[in-house]
Design brief:
Number of strands: 7
Strand content: 35-45%
Distance between the termini: 6 Å
Length: 92
């Protein structure tokens, strides 16, 4: 899985973040103030903002991400697989 590209912009008090993935998924989030919840628009096969929020909530709840302490397997073709408990991710 490749990471989405992201860009940020600030205009006055409004901050906007864009996430774009090469498979066509995208998300745009804008917020007026620093503590305000953003207005989010997203499309494509995956909901990138929802995935980011899921990771952020796990980090806040557990104080760390599952990548810490994960087992690493590197295949001869360079594919990297990280796993810890029931969590696993493969990076091509």
């Amino acid at each position: 899985m490749t990471q989405p590209d992201h860009r940020t912009a600030t205009a006055g008090d409004t901050r906007t973040v864009w996430m774009l993935h090469r498979e066509g998924s995208w998300a745009r989030a804008s917020a007026e103030g620093f503590l305000d919840s953003p207005t989010v628009h997203q499309g494509g096969p995956r909901r990138l903002w929802d995935e980011l929020e899921r990771i952020r909530h796990r980090l806040n709840r557990e104080g760390g991400l599952p990548v810490y302490g994960a087992h690493v397997l590197i295949d001869p073709d360079g594919t990297l697989t990280l796993s810890r408990g029931s969590w696993t991710v493969t990076v091509d």
